[in-house]
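[job 4417] fold queue: 2 targets
>>> target A
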Amino acid sequence: MAENSTCCTPEGACHSGGTDVQVGEVTTTYKVTGMTCGHCEGAVSSELGELAGVSSVQAVAATGLVTVTSKAPLDEDAVRAAVDEAGYELVGQAA
């Protein structure tokens, strides 16, 4: 039988270096208007963190960017509703 000549182990892992990104997770960055401080960041993060499948949220008031990591792509209407519930406005996905 021929030996496996790829860099992958028999378990399917390539390379021994680790990363923090989990296989299958999706990271999406949104533009949100109205955030001005840490309290705003916390309110948006809290509401988005309650959406099903969301594993982390990072909101930055200075840039208006909110980065969400989830198990699958999120429905933009659900993201918009969560941001609205927090008292801010979702512009859409950041370019």
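>>> target B
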Amino acid sequence: MPPSPAPVALPHYRPATRPQPKGGTSVLTTTLVIIAPAVLATAILRSRSR
């Protein structure tokens, strides 16, 4: 029977070295600002096509 493997030490938690962005627009907000008008325009134009 082979010997059991030795436990491995996990690395300690280190905070990010780059500074966190302050303010600015989130990715979600930017995505909604771009997609919402397109979805509304598509819904409006689709209902008139008949």
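[job 4417] complete. Note on B: Residues 27-48 form the longest helix (22 residues).
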